[in-house]
Amino acid sequence: MTTIYSFPAIADDNACILILGSMPGKASLQAGQYYAHPRNQFWPILGELVGAEPALDYVERTRALMSAGIALWDVLKSCYRSSSLDADIDKSSIIVNDFAAFFAGHPHIRQVFFNGATAEQAFRRYVLPDIDAEDLVLQRLPSTSPAHAGMSYQQKLQRWQSIKLITEEI
């Protein structure tokens, strides 16, 4: 197994929402873009919610997120993983991103949404004990991964609506 590395955060000074994945899959790593797998529903969902349409180029999609006050990152900085599946992450190899520095540099973030269970579990286990999260609201959303086929697109979109409600309040 080889070590894989996540991407830098996509965030600006106005971010008030943070969406966290676990670690980019192979298609994303090859493309150098978050959620690049063609069947991942992240960009279609965020397109409907905040205008980050899949038809836009990647830079324009990330600008749409930032314009809506949304930052995007992964819990893990690096790990060993033999496939794109979160279940294949070698837990003994996990190194998490520097969330203390991230939150210090983005003091307006009050809502953290997890794109699936693995991101939430990793954050709660490896990050939460070492940061001051008193003012953070943490919420798991259904994974947008094509591997999470237990919910329809419409069901996922409905659950992800909570992000839109918050961005409308900004």
Features:
170 residues; alpha/beta; 3-stranded antiparallel β-sheet; 22% strand; 4-stranded parallel β-sheet; 6 helices; Uracil-DNA Glycosylase, subunit E
Number of strands: 7
Shape: globular
Number of helices: 6
Helix content: 25-40%
Low-confidence stretches: none
Mean pLDDT, all residues: 91
- Order of strands, widest sheet: 3-2-6-7
Folded structure, characterized:
The chain is built from six helices and seven strands, in the order ββαααβββαβαβα. The chain is of the alpha/beta class and 170 residues long. It has a single domain (3-169), classed as Uracil-DNA glycosylase-like domain (Uracil-DNA Glycosylase, subunit E). The strands form two sheets. A four-stranded parallel beta sheet has the order 3-2-6-7. A three-stranded antiparallel beta sheet has the order 1-4-5, covered by helices on one side. α2 crosses α6. The model has no long low-confidence stretch (mean pLDDT 91).
